[in-house]
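Entry 14. Structure prediction run on the chain below.
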Amino acid sequence: MLKKWLVLLDDVLSVVSLTGIILLTIVNVFCRFVLNSPIAWAEEVTLGLFVWLVFVGISSTMKRDGHIGIDYFVRKLPKPLSAVSQMLRAGVIYYVLIGILLVLGYELMAQAGEKVTPVLGISYQLIDLAVPFGAILSTVHFTRRLIETGPWKRSKEGSC
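Output returned:
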C-alpha cells in the first residue's frame, strides 16, 4: 500500500499543481479583463504551484525514465564500456539529485526563514520545500529504475 501511494504521490501533486495553475490563470484573466478586478493573490499562488509542478514533475518523469538522454553512442559501445558509461551516468544523476537538488534545496528552504509572500503571507519555506521533496522522490524512483534495468542485468535480446 505504501509503495502504491509513493508511486502515485508525485503524479497527484503534479496534476493538482497544473490544474490549479490553469484554473487560477483562467479565472484571473476573466476577472482582470471582464470584471476589471484582478485577483490580488493569484500570481503568488500560481508561482508556488509552478515551483511544485516543476520539482515534483521531475520525479514523475524520472519514474517513467522520461528524462532526456542521448544513448545512440552508448548503444554502439562494447558491453563493458557501455556498463561503465551507464554507471558514470548514474553517478552524475545521483550527484545532481542528492548533491545539488536535495542539499542545496534544503539550504534554500532553511534560508527562507521568516520570508513570506506579500499578499497571503505564505512562508517561502512551504514553496521551497518542493525542491528537496522532489529530489527525494526522484532519487527513490531513479534508484528503483536503476535496480530494475541496471547495467548488471542480462539483456533479454537473443534469449530463447
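The chain has six helices and no strands.
Filed with the rest of this week's runs.
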